[in-house]
Amino acid sequence: MSTPLKLVAFSKEQPARLLTIYLINQGINVEYQHSGNDYAHSVMLLELSDQIQAKKIAEEFVLNPNDVKYQTAAWQSGETVNLTPVKSFSAAKALYDLKQAPFTSSILAICLVIYLLAMIGISGPYFWLKIQPIAILIDSGQWWRLLGPALIHFSVLHIAFNMLWWWSLGKQIETTFGINSLLMLFVFSAIVSNASQLLVSGPNFGGLSGVVYALVGCVWWLGWLKPSWGLSLPKPIIGFLLVWLVVGYLDILPVNMANTAHTVGLICGCVFAWFLVTRAKSVSTQ
């Protein structure tokens, strides 16, 4: 038997058990496993030869867990698994999640505060963080402005999109690899993507989307390079984000897109995933 491989992990027990039952019903050797982290309920693949089929089924389940075929499989096996409706809001759960990922939470809070201050007319943080042409940066020495655009946003849709992806993916990376890894990815991708956008189109841009695309690239490539770590994105989500990246270059949207920052951020995330895997291999051989 092969070393068990984490196929997918959930924050609740019911969907993990439901998927486990369905996979077994399809002749795939898996088991349910509980751990102590945020996504504590895992489906473990016991035979690597079933990996391709199992990943396809898992992706379909994540997209539509309420499909009747999953509950039917549970009934046929003699078990009933009811998916518990997610509560709309729980202050205690929200506070717990924030404490589990302090760096992810901090960037989220900073971006929201800066945006809300701008909405009531306090635009000082915008001017202090706005990136400047390279020549001015060299003269002023205000190198923090290379990070600055990642923290400023210009509309509700802009900040909502970026904060959703930052929280979802950043929390996974921080709880899996620790705060230092997410900090390095944030600084690396923000500086490189912002500097690239500056050189291509000038200083009039902002947003966390370059870093968000770095998170996407990192999780995407980790799912490919090291699937046993349990981090991955469904193929439809990857496809949507890549298509959105291409659409930005077509100049058909009513808003200006920081296309260079998005592309360079994606590349930074892929490179960082390779770095994490290489570092882990180096440590394991020592």
Task: Supply the key terms.
2 domains; mainly alpha; three-stranded antiparallel β-sheet; Rhomboid-like fold; Alpha-Beta Plaits
Secondary-structure blueprint:
Blueprint: E1 5-10, H1 13-25, E2 30-34, E3 41-45, H2 51-63, H3 68-76, H4 91-100, H5 102-119, H6 124-129, H7 134-140, H8 156-177, H9 179-201, H10 209-225, H11 235-249, H12 259-285
Question: Can you put this structure into words, describing what you see?
Answer:
Belongs to the peptidase S54 family. One of its GO terms (cellular component) is membrane. Its main location: membrane. This is Rhomboid-like protein. Residues 141-277 form the Peptidase S54 rhomboid domain. With 286 residues, the chain is mostly helical. It folds into 2 domains: 5-76, Alpha-Beta Plaits, CATH 3.30.70; 91-285, Up-down Bundle (Rhomboid-like fold), CATH 1.20.1540. The chain contains 12 helices and 3 strands; from the N terminus they run E-H-E-E-H-H-H-H-H-H-H-H-H-H-H.
Q: What is the structure about, briefly put?
A:
This protein has 286 residues and is mostly helical. The protein has 12 helices and 3 strands.
